[in-house]
Amino acid sequence: QIAAHVETLIKMMKSGRGEVIEHALDDLRTVRQSLLSLLFRLHSVEDSEQPAAQDGLERIRDAMKYIKKPIIDPETKKPCSRGLHKAQLLLESCVETVVISKLGSFELPVAKRLGKLWQFPSDHPPIAAKLTLGECSLKVASWNVLNRNYYKYIDADTQGLKGSQITTLHEAERRESTIVEKIQEMLLKTNINILCLQECWPELIAELKAALGENLLFEMLCSGDEQDKNQEVIVFDSKLRVMDVPHHPPFSENSKKVVTEVHFQLETESLRVVTTHVPGAPFGCARREFADRLAEIVNGKKLPTVLMADLNFPEKAVHPLLLDRGLEDIYFVPTPYPTNICQGSLLPKRIDSIAVINHQVAGSKLRDITAMGAKELLDGLDKVVELLQSRSAEPLTPTRYHSDKAETDAEKISRLERELHAARQRVKYLQSTIDCQNEERAREAPATSSKERAREALLPHRPTDAPSGHFRRKVQASSVHRVEPEKL
């Protein structure tokens, strides 16, 4: 609500009318008061909602600095809405985080599980974009290949993918080779120049290294030691020269996760590529640390930069933090399709991103940036993506959902217990609602005076079993006619 209020003030500021702008500036006091009140409320939140409240507190503090004093345009010397826009996005970002967290915590799904319909070796489809730097046209892509150490979540069916191609390939120990085949198709058939991979493991890295060594057209860099169980890999056209690979400290939530940076030399231009896999704790410090790290990288050596990453959050939860750190010219390439599945609700979500930061260097600049469609990237990927895009149109009852898969006795007992718990919570909620309504009616009902009670005593009682509205009207009319004022 406060973000919507700020959005209204932004429109008023952009009107150009002095009186309207003055009203908007005056109304900033109301916004500040609303935020201070919300800060006080969030400080008192406890239990399971406390992490979300803490995230909200941090975003509100970030937003407050833009609301305390409006930014003055250096050219017009008048207040402008640029800072308010940042405040609006920051406030909306914590809402986005809460929504994604809630969708992942549903006890029962609201979309159909895919199971064996999912014929792809990862729970993420890859994404890609075309861009131009100077005179060079490039195709770049990013793909979370699903680390084999996370297969336990597939087996537990947390995303409705048990029995999919992920399962069959894992059991046949052929998932690594299938992933490498998909990578080779992107490199050799789609002509991807730079491919960033997340969640790679030693066996996959070894197989990929052997495959790339056969043609010498591509090289690869790892974010850590090749024996690290979970890391990022950058595969690139061997025509691109690697100039530098700066190292950055890991995320505090996961010492194995780092932000990987590579400087490439093209024909006449330089390009920086950044990749990472942001830890996914909904309300941890990973997003903030990532934003700090990326700002340090970009504001250090000025280079055209492409970010390709699994951010574990939608763009709207991350972009405002980057704007707040001065990355004004960052542009997120619109992801044309969902890239993952929420646990719990089984709804699709977009958490993989490609973004460009257009620092102009020596007259060259990243331009002509467009997202690639699924059909352009891999044969058959469009059918995989269609499953993610369409399945949420069929809401399921618990019975319909669980009839789609065989249950063990233990699973059935567990499901019935969850349904019973949900039913009890529903009854409790309805009873609470009824009690609140009764209390509200009692408060709204006027106090009956002694004279009114006496008047009611003199009035004849209305029949409760009147057969028709006509009879009730006759009784009411005759009752009023018989009662004389002095008797009241």
UniProtKB/TrEMBL annotation:
Keywords: Coiled coil. Residues 438-464 have a biased composition (Basic and acidic residues). Residues 438-488 are annotated as: Disordered. SUPFAM superfamilies: DNase I-like (SSF56219). It comes from the Eukaryota. InterPro entries: Endo/exonu/phosph_ase_sf. Residues 406-433 form a coiled coil. This is Protein NLRC3.
